[in-house]
Amino acid sequence: MIEIHALFLDDNKNRHMRFREVNTDLRRIHVYDADSCIEELLDVEKDFDIIYLDHDLNAETNNQLNDDEKDGRYVCKRMTKDDIKSRYSGTLVVIHSLNSVGAKEMSYILRDAGYEHIVIAPFAWESHGRSKLQHWI
Asked: Which of 64, 96, 93, 99 is nearest to 76 (CA)?
């Protein structure tokens, strides 16, 4: 059986719990903010097969589309730099945000940078088990 390594970014603890419950067969790393996500992506000792990204990462405020926010777009912009892009441009990226505008912007950032496999699927862990994602990996 293939071992799949996943990075899961979301600021909501309940979503992390649900992701753990549904995806027991994945080796997961959970992060709650943009900087932690970027740190994991930069760690050369780790190699992710799937990257799950949320847009709105500040549960305390009504995070809209402010350019100064450390939201999912911030992570995607950082993912376009060579040190991350060279390792992950062929990796499946699942944007699971309910913020449709933010999710689309995130996908445009990654597509324009040459990322090959991007899926916008709000709360994707509800419907994407190992067998459904296997063809992407």
From this structure: 93
List b or e across 67-76, with b for residues whose CB sees 16 or more CB atoms inside 10 angstroms: eebbbbbbbb
Pairing of strands 92-95, 117-120: parallel
Q: Which amino acid is it at 53? A: L
Residue in the structure block whose two tokens are 């926010």: 69
CATH number at residue 131: 3.40.50.2300
Tens digit of each residue's pLDDT (9 = 90 or more) over 56-112: 987 554 555 556 679 999 999 999 999 999 999 999 999 999 899 999 999 999 999
Number of helical (H) and strand (E) elements in the chain, helices listed first: 6, 5
- Owning domain of residue 93: 4-136
Q: Strands of the chain (E only): list them.
A: 4-9, 26-31, 50-53, 92-95, 117-120
Please give the tally of structural domains in the chain.
1
Q: Where are the alpha helices (DSSP H) in 43-133?
A: 72-79, 82-88, 100-112, 130-133
Backbone φ and ψ for 29, nearest 5 degrees, come out as: -120, 130
